[in-house]
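Supplementary Text 2. Reproducibility record for the structural model of the 238-residue chain.

All settings were left at their defaults, and a single model was retained for analysis rather than an ensemble. We include the record here because the model underlies the residue-level annotations in Supplementary Table 4.
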Amino acid sequence: MRRRNTHNAPRKGRANAAARRARVLVVDDHPMVRERLVEIINAEPGFEVCGQADDRAGTLAQLQARSPDIVLLDLRLKDSHGLELLREIRARWPAVRVLVVSMHDETLFAEHALAAGADGYISKQEATRNIVRALHVVRAGQRYLGAAAVEKIVERLCGNASRAAVAGTAALSPRELKVFALIGQGFSSPQIAHALGLDRRTVETYRARIKAKLNLRSGDELLQQAIAWSQLGAPPSA
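Retained model, structure tokens:
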């Protein structure tokens, strides 16, 4: 009778565990973006895409069915804001690593994402170049941030964030202030309209009034001011 060689079994088990690919769930509501991310991730030996989703319901269903190790999460989804979904994922699946991928400049939303429980933040502009590196960092239990986000956070912690950036909010009406607060939390105009029971044109009117009262020239400036106001601990409007 041939004896089974058990001497190498533990070593083989350890090797198989080390070689196991990390399972990644890709969540983005743009099919072309998802396809490109899936292509990049599946080409990396240490990772495999185990599922895809484009909204909250699909993401939760994939998390339940696929048990991913990492969720690659966009902040803009069809039926919810990514930060709210991130908080839900963190509450229900605390062991899952979450890497946020967003079209927004990382200096604007990275800190909000980390506060909501993200393990890293990468902008879509750099995702195709650095997504594999970011996944390796997050898989190792560390946080991934780009250089711009790190510099911004260090400046704020050192006390260089200027309160002058949010001067003038006293001129806003209570409803304008509420819209301003929701903009700072990352809500889009349709999401603000839904939250406040308004139509989108009314929200756009409020945005225009806020820009005029705060002497802002563009939507990007409005977003930056709203986020700065939020980060400085301004109380939410009733």
